Amino acid sequence: MPDYAALKAALTATYSGLTDAQVIAAVNGVTVQQTVDVAMSDVLAYFALQGELPTIKGWATNPPAVAGAVTAQAANAAQTLGLMVGPPPLFDTLQMSDPVKGPAISALLSALVSAGLISSAAAQAITAMSSTMVSQASIWGWPGGIIENDLVAARAMA
Do 115 and 54 touch, CB atoms closer than 8 A? Predict the structure, then answer.
């Protein structure tokens, strides 16, 4: 549902002095970075294309031995990733947008990179899958963008 109150507040605070056409262009422009969830099918496809999926799946039942750079935390992270990719996958999505789960997934990836179990490129690729650009309008509930009538309605709010 469109958030007219947020639009009205932005008209006063951020877009004051702009023409309606300038406001519409600014609000509808794809300028806001947003974190989104990542489909496990995308993660599986990435690791499969890198030739790493069989090794990772094996970690579910046989995590890497704790030795050298492979700490207990990294071995646990490897086993967790192995369980996550399945079969069947433990989750449909990596909830990167969740304020608790997102950082936990990032920490899991970092532990795997630190231990040399996955490459930093792999961790970066998975993290990049969770980043998208959207318009401010879509965040406020207008996935198709705002139009002049929306500005009129927002300004008319008490």
Answer: no
CA distance 25 to 44: 38
Q: Which two tokens stand for residue 47?
A: 């690791």
Residue matched to tokens 């970690």:
59
Q: H-helix or E-strand containing 150?
A: helix 148-156
Residue the block writes with tokens 């974190």 = 35
Compute the distance between CA of residue 119 and CA of residue 126 in angstroms, rounded to an integer: 11
What one-letter code names the amino acid at 119? S
Give the model's pLDDT for residue 69: 62
- Residues 73-97: pLDDT tens digits? 777 888 888 888 777 777 888 899 9
